[in-house]
Design a protein that fits this description.
Blueprint (H helix, E strand, L loop, with lengths): L2 H23 L3 H13 L3 H13 L7 H13 L3 H12 L7 H6 L18 H13 L3 H13 L7 H13 L3 H14 L3 H16 L3 H13 L7 H13 L3 H13 L7 H13 L3 H10 L10 H13 L3 H13 L7 H13 L3 H12 L5 H16 L3 H13 L7 H11 L4 H13 L7 H13 L3 H13 L8
Helix pairs in contact: 1-2, 2-3, 3-4, 4-5, 5-7, 5-8, 7-8, 8-9, 9-10, 10-11, 11-12, 12-13, 13-14, 14-15, 15-16, 16-17, 17-18, 18-19, 19-20, 20-22, 21-22, 22-23, 23-24, 24-25, 25-26
């Protein structure tokens, strides 16, 4: 028996655990791990939890996610609240994969944990189990974690009333995460002055613990003077604080403040770098904003190539304004090779998300005198493929093509069929189909139905439809006169 192990057993597993903790704090991880191993094998949950941390962090021993996960489950099963919290948090972030049997038995199947370095889908079922156990043991962090799952987990798990109660209990214990969660829960229930004051108080507590999202939200309330004395200059500094801690919306707000020189010395380049940082972290709004900064009216010197890069990043993440902007760059050849088919692709993505400008751009693209017959044929064919898959915007544009013979042979009957289909969701299609009904083009004349479609488009705010339905009301066409 070595000297270290002999000394350890003089005081038993508990003494070995205390000695291991001291050695770890002094930086002697190898000796600490040797002592922890003996204490953990003796069944001390705290030692099991620390062994798991050593394996996961590669501290005093080669890193092993499998071994770390095995010891973490063992510690959690034996009542370690810290291990339960860690298992729950890792499960929420998709960093472990545990079946219901493996979670409690620590069977050999635990080797499936941490199968690779890439996060998997969140495992809310496992997270719920361990967070509930931690909460029932009286852990304020466990209560906050459980409330988060009950608020943001799958629909079948959600229980906002129960989550509110757990957040309140956690906050009453002074848990920063509980304070943040309780503040958000209160804000969802009411935005009256008294409630907002309580929300601000809770956010201040959470922000004092350095939680970035709490600092940012406190900045928003401070900027607006909601539940707290308004102070825009202080709000900017709160945005800066949260930005430096990695909060993406705060990085955008701090960057904009620097660019505009609002309550801080103007620094356009530094402001752009903060917004770029948020964009690189995956914020599509920030990516679109960087594209705007490099467009003609942006704060940076015009650079359409740079703008196209950022618009594409945002558009691929589903940002409708960025998709339209990218389509416009392809239309004009600014910063990219001019390509009308590619332009139509991005304009369609923006249009199907409801962007009226992109819808108009698509129609203008097809009717443009500058577009070649080949361009029109390619785009019309693309519209037909999309329309057949159920895309209403594409159905409208295909109807326009068929009605006017753009890229395809003119066929008013088919045009009316596609416009009728698109009219279920596209205002311009409602108006155009109404015109065809009123004029008997491609479909039998039906003034009453035409008037109904004009009225529907008019109610959506389309000026041309307002004029058309007013004319029919004035002259008693398609229904009784109504001056």
């Amino acid at each position: 028996m070595t000297l270290v192990s002999s000394l350890m057993w003089l005081g038993g597993p508990t003494a070995a655990l205390r000695r291991a903790i001291r050695l770890s704090e002094q930086g002697n991880a190898v000796a600490a791990f040797a002592l922890l191993s003996r204490a953990a094998r003796a069944g001390l949950p705290e030692a099991e939890h620390l062994i798991a941390r050593f394996y996961l962090e590669g501290k005093g021993v080669p890193a092993s996610r499998v071994e770390g996960a095995r010891w973490l489950q063992r510690a959690a099963t034996n009542g370690s609240v810290e291990a339960q919290l860690m298992l729950s948090a890792l499960s929420i972030n998709g960093l472990i994969q545990v079946s219901s049997g493996e979670a409690s038995t620590c069977s050999p199947g635990a080797d499936g944990l941490f199968a690779d370095n890439a996060p998997a889908e969140p495992d809310f079922e496992t997270a719920l189990k361990w967070s509930r156990q931690a909460a029932q043991a009286g852990s304020a962090q466990g209560e906050a974690l459980l409330a988060y799952i009950l608020t943001n987990g799958p629909e079948s798990m959600r229980d906002l009333d129960e989550a509110h109660r757990y957040y309140e209990r956690s906050a009453s214990s002074g848990c920063p995460e509980g304070c943040l969660g309780y503040a958000l829960s209160l804000a969802r229930q009411s935005t009256d002055d008294d409630n907002l004051a309580r929300v601000a108080e809770l956010l201040r507590s959470a922000a004092g613990a350095g939680i970035p999202s709490a600092i940012y939200l406190l900045g928003v309330l401070t900027e607006q003077g909601a539940g707290i004395t308004g102070d825009p200059a202080a709000a900017v500094q709160l945005f800066r604080n949260a930005a430096e801690r990695g909060h993406r919306p705060a990085q955008v707000r701090w960057g904009l403040a620097l660019i505009a020189g609002v309550y801080v010395e103007k620094d356009t380049e530094n402001g752009e770098s903060w917004i770029r940082r948020a964009a690189l972290a995956g914020d599509p709004d920030a990516a679109a904003l960087v594209g705007d900064l490099y467009s003609q009216k942006g704060a940076m010197p015009a650079n359409y190539t740079e703008a196209a890069i950022w618009y594409r990043r945002a558009a691929e993440a589903g940002h409708q304004l960025a998709a339209r902007a990218l389509g416009t760059l392809y239309l004009t050849g600014a910063g990219v090779v001019q390509d009308k088919v590619e332009a139509a692709h991005w304009l369609r993505i923006s249009a199907e998300k409801g962007n009226r400008g992109a819808q108009a751009d698509l129609a203008n693209l097809l009717l443009s005198e500058e577009s070649s017959a080949g361009d029109r044929a390619i785009i019309a064919k693309w519209f037909e493929q999309a329309a057949q898959s159920g895309d209403l915007i594409a159905a409208f544009n295909l109807g326009v093509c068929l009605a006017r013979g753009v890229g395809v042979e003119r066929d008013e009957e088919r045009a009316a069929q596609w416009l009728r289909r698109a009219a279920n969701g596209v205002v311009d299609a409602q108006y155009m189909y109404g015109r065809m009904l009123a004029e008997g083009r491609g479909v039998e004349c039906n003034l009453a139905e035409a008037r109904a479609w004009f009225a529907r488009a008019a109610e959506a705010g389309m000026a041309e439809a307002e004029v058309a339905v007013a004319e029919m009301m004035a002259n008693g066409r398609g229904g009784p006169p109504d001056l």
